[in-house]
Amino acid sequence: MKTHALLKELKKLVPEKLELLLLDLIFKRFMVVEVETTTACNRRCSYCPNSRFDRGLLKNKKLMPTRLFFKLIDELSEINFKGSLHPHFYGEPLLDERLPGLVKYARLKLPKADITIFTNGDLLTPKIKENLIKAGVDNFVIKKSQEDLKSLSNRGGLLDYSGGTRFKYCSFPSKFVVIDYAGNVILCCNDYFSSVKFGNINNEKLMDIWNKPNYRRVRRDLRKGIFNLEICKNCKVIEKN
User: Fold this and answer.
1) Spatial CB neighbours of 197, under 8 Å, sequence gap ≥ 6
2) Are the C-beta atoms of 136 and 103 separated by less than 8 Å?
3) What's residue 12's pLDDT?
């Protein structure tokens, strides 16, 4: 049964307190880790905040320190993480020359995890693809243009689209943990400017951050459709015809 269907059934069958307890058990641990190794991108796509802001410009490139990436992977290994690892945020991961080495380390420490590279494909030569597969990449998701997308997001209100639909509830932060180049654990993939931070893996362990009462409360509220954060209030999706 899919997550949203399960949520509906729980609401019918159990009182609120028990429902929240069950949901905490279901979402006890994240399923996907998105980690920003580089902020730089070689494109300025209209559907991305990089088209409006200078965070992703090549001249403003910021890299996650290699030691910090390794620390994160070590902590995921300690909990026997078997979910998906996505080394990207709004940057183009293939611009990070360290990527094969980072992937190799992740594969060594996380043998059962799925490692997926999201890329615009501009730099994905056959040789680079071969090297990344040898390093341990399982999948490549290539999105070259807006036409490759089934829907558009206004990225928490950063992009101007007419119309759009607000979410009735949101389970994304309960399934995904997103970490920016500086080590901040942030709300979600739409938090382009890291406006909502729950901790930093430079000086905290990821699972300690994940289990913080405030972080848990935010995830619970969003699953119930309670949008207290401005970024969540402004978040819309636009379905393409």
Assistant:
1) 184, 185, 186
2) yes
3) 63
Do 105 and 37 touch, CB atoms closer than 8 A? no
Q: If we measure between CA atoms, which residue out of 66, 72, 17, 53 comes closest to residue 224?
A: 17
Please tell me what DSSP assigns to residue 105: H
Query: pLDDT digit string (tens) for 101-156?
Result: 999 999 999 999 999 999 999 999 999 999 999 999 999 999 877 677 778 899 99
Strand-pair category, 114-119 with 139-142 = parallel
Helix (H, G, I), strand (E, B) or coil at 239: strand
Rounded to a whole number of angstroms, the CA Rg of the chain reads 18
Question: And the tokens for 237?
Answer: 């999706």
pLDDT confidence of 5, banded at 50, 70, 90? low
CA 38 to chain CA mean position, Å: 14
Composition of the chain by helix, strand, coil, percent to 5 = 40, 15, 45
CA angle 220, 225, 230 (to 5 degrees): 90
- Enter the pTM of the model: 0.88
* CA–CA distance, 2 with 44 (Å, rounded to integer): 35
Per-residue model confidence (pLDDT) at position 14? 57
Residue 89 near residue 61 (C-beta atoms within 8 A): no
Sign of the Cα torsion 158, 176, 3, 152 reads positive
CB-based burial of residue 208 (10 Å sphere; 0-12 exposed, 13-18 middle, 19+ buried)?
exposed
Would you put residue 226 in left (φ > 0), alpha (ψ -120 to 50) or beta? beta
C-alpha distances in Å from residue 78, one per residue of 25, 95, 163, 206, 212: 20, 29, 45, 11, 19
